[in-house]
């Protein structure tokens, strides 16, 4: 069986949904389909929740009404029979009534999770109804019955595997299974999710649980490009990436892949293929265990980074100084992305600045602290094993006109990272493309 995951744009219009239906039926092979919400829907559902937190039911109702109009129109265009139009519109009306029911009560994060879950519930029902109308036997599986996180809010692969395999065994023989990406239950059985963009993660977890032969992520671009296509001109699709390279790129900002998605596939040894729904014939990118030696593959950028430097004469020849510093970050559950040390100081970067003030106040006990905000990590990814000559020189050469706050190299065999001002990002990415890929 293969897993095919379609993102928001890929199910974003009646035409695109029809396209998904033909892509999943085309091969004739058993297929497990994971769908995102229609593009824009999760944002609207978050907007509704924000209005309700702010005790503004009128604002929430307006977004709900607009969304309902859009969905009803979509159903009108998607189906050809009056019967299926009617069935789907009744289902959607129930969904929007459910959303409206939250405008009357006390609002907590539990209600918010229930609201944002409805986007995937609607898209999967709509596609299944379309397949049924086309005479295709497709089975809709409810992700809330088998996707689960544990007490640390991490997916529970053992539970997912057991549940999913039991469900598949008990489900009538089918070629096509469809389920929702993103949504799950938490350790207490409540509705929860795998964070924004998390449908890729669902696909990978399901692929590992089945286990599938291949996990395909279908989106609106023909694979992983060698630089951010939203920022840089003339980027090109990369044919192949190693799991580690893909993980670095996803973590450092290549939005095509959710950062968490690589891990389950990697551990299960299942290749991940990135494909373009708008151009299915394009080769896309295959992510697997193969490492092509001596090549820089791609560049990515991660925004909203804060750099923190602590300078202390106490660090000189002292043991335990770094431990104290790290413990402060740990106690505020703030991961460190980059780090550089010198004899008397250490610089670190974080992307979650929720507890910045508390962290800085505690660090001040140990030395002088400097903070730089609006920074950006530029990550150059490929076979950067230290025995390869010249690659780090090439990357730094490309950055020669950009002020660099920090460099990290040698943490893994796969990347060299630069911390720069966000304002210099476009120029840095373009320079790197010019030097590394032309
Ligand atoms: P989906 O809704 O299908 O999950 P996303 O919007 O999450 O799609 O991801 C696809 C988008 O990722 C592309 O449209 C592209 O603009 C963006 N992107 C950012 N960096 C890269 C990259 N290096 N290669 C390909 N796409 C990238
Ligand atoms: N619909 C969710 C989001 O927009 C999950 C996803 O599409 O991956 O974040
Ligand atoms: Mg995505």
Automatic annotation (TrEMBL):
Q: Which keywords, in A-to-Z order, does the entry hold?
A: Amino-acid biosynthesis, ATP-binding, Kinase, Nucleotide-binding, Transferase
Pfam families in alphabetical order = AA_kinase (PF00696), ACT_9 (PF22468)
Q: Which family does it belong to?
A: Belongs to the aspartokinase family.
Task: Supply one GO BP term.
Answer: threonine biosynthetic process
Task: Write out the residues that bind substrate.
Answer: 42, 120
> Which Gene3D superfamilies does the record match to this protein?
3.30.70.260, Acetylglutamate kinase-like
- Tell me its EC number(s), please: 2.7.2.4
| One GO MF term | ATP binding
Could you name the domain of life of the organism this protein comes from? Bacteria
Q: Which GO terms describe its cellular component?
A: cytosol
Question: Any idea where the Aspartokinase ACT domain is?
Answer: 378-434
Positions annotated to bind ATP:
5-8, 219-220, 230
Q: Which reaction does it catalyse?
A: L-aspartate + ATP = 4-phospho-L-aspartate + ADP
Name the source organism: Segatella buccae ATCC 33574
Note the NCBIfam families from the entry: asp_kinases
Protein name (Swiss-Prot/TrEMBL): Aspartokinase
Q: In which pathway does it act?
A: Amino-acid biosynthesis; L-lysine biosynthesis via DAP pathway; (S)-tetrahydrodipicolinate from L-aspartate: step 1/4; Amino-acid biosynthesis; L-threonine biosynthesis; L-threonine from L-aspartate: step 1/5; Amino-acid biosynthesis; L-methionine biosynthesis via de novo pathway; L-homoserine from L-aspartate: step 1/3
Ranges where the Aspartate/glutamate/uridylate kinase domain occurs:
2-276
